[in-house]
Amino acid sequence: MAKETSRLRITGTDGLVRVEFVDRDILDEANIRQIGAEILGRIEAETKPRVVISFHNVEHLSSAALGTLITVNSAVKKKAGELRLSDIRPSTLEVFKITKLDRIFHICDTAEAAMRSLA
After folding, report:
1. Rg of the chain's alpha carbons, rounded to an integer?
2. What is the mean pLDDT of residues 108-113?
3. Which of 37, 62, 99, 108 has the most Cβ atoms closer than 10 angstroms to its Cβ?
4. How far is Cα 74 from Cα 22, in angstroms, rounded to an integer?
5. Is 80 left (phi over 0), alpha (psi -120 to 50) or beta?
6. In this structure, are strands 25-26 and 8-13 parallel, antiparallel, or unpaired?
7. Interstrand relation of 106-108 and 8-13 (parallel, antiparallel or unpaired)
8. Lowest mean pLDDT across 12-16, 24-28, 96-100, 108-112
9. DSSP-assigned beta bridge partners for residue 50
10. Residue-wise DSSP of 49-85
11. Are 44 and 17 in contact, with CB atoms under 8 Å apart?
């Protein structure tokens, strides 16, 4: 079985992990499962994960993707780490506000600001 192409760009330095989505639309269930597994694998590899997930490229996000983010947040907290979300478009940010997820996640305007908050 061939290895699936990553739906993410993951970089990291000094224990700080930055995740960016490749796709504009995070809607497909199979891709969301793959994304979740990839991020969770990276979190497990860190002692005390500090993670920034940038939504710079993302235009549309499904409710399943939001569920995956909640799972990722729980995994980070279990390891006494910190998670920041950044670069969320206004229309998507409205979904976070309606669902009250903006109270669960620490959301920054830019990935750079998110990374500074974790430094």
Report:
1. 13
2. 97
3. 108
4. 23
5. left
6. unpaired
7. unpaired
8. 12-16
9. 16, 82
10. -EEEEE-TT-SEE-HHHHHHHHHHHHHHHHTT-EEEE
11. no
Q: Which domains does the chain have, with CATH numbers?
A: 8-118 (3.30.750.24)
Cα–Cα distance for residue pair 6/31, rounded to 1 Å: 9
- Token pair of 69, please? 């983010």
Could you tell me if residue 107 is left (phi over 0), alpha (psi between -120 and 50 degrees) or otherwise beta? beta
pLDDT tens by residue, 48-66: 999 999 999 999 999 999 9
- Rounded to whole angstroms, how far apart are CA atoms 57 and 50? 21
Pairing of strands 60-61, 106-108: unpaired
Cβ contacts of residue 33 below 8 Å, gap of 6+?
68
Reading the block at residue 14, the tokens are 């000094």
Q: Supply 26's token pair.
A: 């995070």
